[in-house]
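Page 42, continued from yesterday. The earlier attempt failed because a stray header line got pasted into the input along with the sequence. Redoing it now with the clean sequence only.
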Amino acid sequence: VQLVESGGGLVQAGGSLRLSCAASGSIFNIVATGWHRQAPGKQRELVAVITSGGSTNYADSVKGRFTISRDNAKNTVYLQMNSLKPEDTAVYSCNAEVVITTIEGSSRYDYWGQGTQVTVSS
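This time it went through. Structure tokens are written below.
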């Protein structure tokens, strides 16, 4: 599975950005796709995740402001970010969780994109 993010950039506080994560390869084994972020000097944190069944989950810090969605026809997951705050500044990375099941059992794999910088100015 290959993941390519796009859509990052510089925006003023209160503004919006939409990130895209385009997947290719063995995408039919993807069970969940998530957006993570890492700010300088901080640990990486999960921002939002969407499962293959369409269920979503968000970090408390972004609930009500960010929306994760997907377009199956384009094999793309989006993160719409509204009401951005300076503390949202980070490198945002897309992650795909893949589960492959055989007669011997199931194996789980994680794939990551290269990341895209989001900078929110005050």
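Notes: The chain has a mean pLDDT of 95.
Reminder to self: strip header lines before submitting.
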